[in-house]
Fold:
Amino acid sequence: MAKTSWEDAAKWYDKIAQEKGHYYHQAVIMPKLKKLIKKSVLDLACGNGALAGNVKCDYVGLDVSKSLIRAAQKKHEGAEFYTKDVTKDLDLKRTFATATCILALQNIAEPEKVLQNAHKHLEDNGKLILVLNHPCFRIPRQSHWGIDNQKKLQYRRIERYMSEMEIPIQVGKVSLPSFHHPLSFYFDLLKKCGFLTVDVQEWCSDKKSTGGAAKMENRAREEFPLFLTIIAQKC
Structure:
């Protein structure tokens, strides 16, 4: 099985993510998540704990990377962090109102086991929030920007979508796998793991271009979302 831990990229990731996450964490993802998370949260594959720096609630973060967990513990003294593989038995003696997996599920070879753990450690009717790089428009190596000079449009070219793929991505100085699945995979998997999908949100970039290409670039950002967020309820 492919090595998926970000331990070898931990120093690089902690530098770009900082205390409250990278740019899109801070500008797009976290402001929306703060409105959805009110009580206790179990953050699966938490990285360096960016979510902990953005919510005011009972927080527990888990990640398989020892270095990222150490970085998280230094940054967020009021939160709990543990080095755990979120595809294995978590050995937690409690449940949570919310579970999250933020921009991490697509880097895990066995997503079903992550969802099973989320279900096990959620309260009755608890919420699971998955934030994904949009699987329709942001497929590594299989989706690209293009420009139609005649129409003066920037467009998104998708070369493959329905096929499940393991795609190497460059993370700092190392190559790690990303796992592409079509939308139907996630909804089928949630149902299989005992969840009811209750909401789907698509989040776009807030950046604005300047210069001669600004109009088409800004329109393209508004038309092709960066992130897909699925909110599901434990049945």
The chain has six helices and eleven strands. The longest helix spans residues 23-36. The domain at 7-135+179-211+227-234 is CATH 3.40.50.150 (Rossmann fold).
